[in-house]
Amino acid sequence: MLEKPLNARQANILKMIEQNGSATIDELESSFDVTPQTLRRDLNLLADANLIQRFHGGASSTTSTQNLPYQDRQIRYLKEKEAIAREIALHIPDHSSLFINIGTTTETIAKALMNHNGLQVVTNNLHVASLMSQKEDFRVIVTSGEVRARDGGIVGEATMDFVKQFRLDFGIIGISAIDEDGTLLDYDYREVKVAQAIIEHSRHVFLAADHSKFGRRAMVRLGNITQANMFFTDQPPEDNIIRMMEENDVRLQICN
User: Residue 207 phi/psi, 5° resolution?
Assistant: First the structure.
């Protein structure tokens, strides 16, 4: 609970985070003419009042029931997503088989894979399928299930059952949120069940998430970061997550 009303800057910081879903100290610096130390104090005050959720280097909205609109997510942290995509592409050999799940990050990864040869792809993301099917030497299989109008994702029991028919070299997983204990979180129960099936039926799991996903809140538990073989991100996570990854042989790849 707040001991006194927010000042104008703090109210505007809160509004910016609520509108965008998250904000880093660097982003706030470009909008507010104060020092990083002042911004950190503001964020700590808002977090203590449970108005936002702090993460290393910034903060996110406390909303756990609804993701940002698809069009907004497409352009947010695009440079970071492109760096992650380039690095993942380097770790995917030609003629591999792979799952690609729903998300704007995985769509960016699909674009980075277009110079590969002979990939076989199973996806529940119509945007990924539309892009990758343009390459004649790729074999693209679209899962069965219900198509979500808002983002072209395919979800449901039929989707999960379809995924379970395969055993592929790589599972490329995007995620909406990573809690402070390494829990992977998302917003749609049906989407999560499909992602869990992809993890279970992949020989190697590549988790892809930019730094804004650290400390975000979402209501459905997908799994834990320790289930990945490699984690691709643009900034180091908190020390406890790094330690957890080291203890479970999860390789951290910082992408710039």
Answer: -95, 130
